[in-house]
Amino acid sequence: MTRPGEGQARLGADIGGTAIKCGRLDADGRVVAEQEVGTPAREGLAPLVDALLGALATLFAPGESWDTFRIGVGCAGLIDPRRGVVVSSPNLPGLRRAPLRDAIRERTGIAAALLNDANAFVLAEARLGAGRGMRSVIGLTLGTGVGGGLVFDGELWEGEQGFAGEPGHAPLSLDGPLCVCGRRGCLEALLSARAVSSRYATLAGVAEAGLTPAEISRRASTGDAHALAAWSETGRILGQAMLGLSHLLDPACFVIGGGQSRAASYFLPRAEEELRTQLLWSDERVPLVRAAELGPSAGWIGAALAGPGAGSDRA
Amino acid sequence: MTRPGEGQARLGADIGGTAIKCGRLDADGRVVAEQEVGTPAREGLAPLVDALLGALATLFAPGESWDTFRIGVGCAGLIDPRRGVVVSSPNLPGLRRAPLRDAIRERTGIAAALLNDANAFVLAEARLGAGRGMRSVIGLTLGTGVGGGLVFDGELWEGEQGFAGEPGHAPLSLDGPLCVCGRRGCLEALLSARAVSSRYATLAGVAEAGLTPAEISRRASTGDAHALAAWSETGRILGQAMLGLSHLLDPACFVIGGGQSRAASYFLPRAEEELRTQLLWSDERVPLVRAAELGPSAGWIGAALAGPGAGSDRA
Questions:
Q1: Residue B312 pLDDT > 50, yes or no?
Q2: Strand, helix or coil for residue B25
Q3: How far is it, in rounded angstroms, from Cα B146 to Cα B265?
Q4: Would the pLDDT of B307 be above 70?
Q5: Residues of chain B numbered 143-172 and touching chain A (CB < 8 Å)
Q6: ipTM rounded to 2 decimals
Q7: What is the crossing angle of helices B117-128 and B298-306, to 10°?
Q8: Which residues sit opposite A14 in a β-bridge?
Q9: How far does Cα A143 stand from its chain's mean position?
Q10: Contact B171 A171 (CB under 8 A)
């Protein structure tokens, strides 16, 4: 499928709470360079744009300028892609209601695409990663928080206002644990790093402090039954989440990313089994369940692929 | 927006467990005639097609024949709209893996659209009912069972295999009550007629037998505190379901139909409040929440609007 802007080099950036990752794709979508700088998270919009554009400018070849490229920027938090505004972002307190696209346009003359970082992740995995070739992909990022997004017919579903793709705050367990958002039983409260640690601590009867998912995986690799059980229960819950999403949306594929996906071998088989055995149409085709393939670059790659028009032209 | 088949008269049918409702729309989408016959639910495909086509034929004017019309058929159960097959339908045991579209084509020469009845409901409400003019509508039918569907950019999202739109079997409460499907805490287990009756019976400390939602509404109208509380809790749960759907999909509008929607005044305000106060972007626009407008005709109207191509042409 040919899309506007194909054939043009692209720059992408992924603004997180600690680092801005960015990179360059050639006209065929191949990664040709990457760059990373620290995020000035609290200083406000101007210093952040300085850091962002400084990092992107290192990716220019001699003679190139901003208008050589299509540029996309993924950002953690609640993003308004239509207006190009960072509405709020817990890890970027300097950016409340920040008109990031306008600020970039003032400095470069370019109308960059702005989108949520997890949406960018899903777009990258759907087009170039674990979901490539699939018509409909639901991505979930399991990390400190839980995010995700939906790609239908090769394009992000951004929703009426551009806010779609926040599955982390869909409730799955109305009487479940409190979420950081103040609600109960959100996907994030059940599948975040903290939730996995808490699950292990409860099973093992130990204190939670210092228990990361990486440490729980290490213990699982030594045969620790509590660690294996904590991952298995995490898989069961992920499977129930995918079951609900499948009954609602019938996607071709789920792509699971984020820090917890490094432990995919401990929880993804259980999640797949839950989905496969409980799906209403389990006699028909069951959605594929895959671990993400593009690693920490997926965010900036997805932003680069979004290009101008992801959201902004569809409003 | 102009769609293929606009300008042509349409026939629609809605096959339920007890009745086949059908009707005729003129070229402008106005209802010009309706008809209803009993469903031969257990006798197999041929008697059902006889009843269906017999009812539809009463809607012909002199000189008209099957090829005067576009025809759409909505059917309860798991429907494969791409292949035109009723995969399974609990209330239509005669139709397991029944090639309904082929059977209609053999008798009429027409390739009818086949779709799930709740999807048809949502399409009708999105185009001509409570969701008209909206870009994205999520419909939920709360009745004996719980169904629904999704309309994005004016078209049904049918999913990879055509099975999308079964929100009734998305889990909302992992430790919740058993659902008829065998899973726990499905939307249907929390919002069906049976769930409302059971909620009231528990609150009032009475036996559930004979307590219909209509009776609970009657008691609510007399000020029965348990009845009001049962409806309010139903609204809270519906609000949590809409909250998750909003965070995932950011729709413009929810349309609530089915038998329970006759009691909308007792539960919809609470559902709306739950959504409005807990939405992540409650400072921005909150999705509208509306009771369905087209009544029991919505199913056949939506089927008629689907026309050939709903699903079948998009595979």
A1: no
A2: strand
A3: 19
A4: no
A5: 150, 152, 157-172
A6: 0.93
A7: 80
A8: A21, A74
A9: 9
A10: no
B140 at A interface, C-beta within 8 A: no
List, for residues B7-49, the tens digit of each pLDDT value.
Answer: 789 999 999 989 999 999 998 889 999 999 999 988 999 999 9
Output the 3-class SS for B136-187: EEEEEEECCCEEEEEEECCEECCCCCCCCCCHHHCECECCCCECCCCCECEH
A281 touches chain B (CB under 8 A): yes
Please classify residue B63 by burial: count the beta carbons closer than 10 Å to its beta carbon, then call 0-12 exposed, 13-18 middle and 19+ buried: exposed
Cβ pair A84, A312 in contact under 8 A:
yes
Stretch A149-165: mean pLDDT:
93
Q: H-type helices in A184-288, by residue range?
A: 187-191, 193-204, 213-221, 225-249, 264-278
Contact B249, A159 (CB under 8 A): yes
What are the angstrom distances between the C-alpha of A311 and each of A7, A83, B49?
20, 9, 46
User: For A196-218, how does the pLDDT look when each residue is reduced to its tens digit (9 = 90+)?
Assistant: 999 999 999 999 988 999 999 99
Contact B76, B89 (CB under 8 A): yes
Size of chain B, expressed as the number of residues it contains: 315
Q: Phi/psi of residue B40, each to 5°?
A: -80, 90
CA distance B240 to chain A (A): 7
Rounded Cα distance between A258 and A270, Å, is 18
Across the interface, whether the CB atoms of A160 and B287 are under 8 A apart is answered yes
């808490």: which residue's tokens?
A: A198
Distance (Å, rounded) from C-alpha B119 to C-alpha B154?
A: 13
Sign of the alpha-carbon torsion through B274, B280, B283, B286? negative
Pairing of strands B253-257, B136-142: parallel
Q: What b/e sequence results for B164-180 when a residue is b if at least 16 CB atoms lie within 10 Å of its CB, and e otherwise?
A: bbbbbbbbbbbebeebe
- What is the distance between the terminal CA atoms of chain A, rounded to a whole angstrom? 22
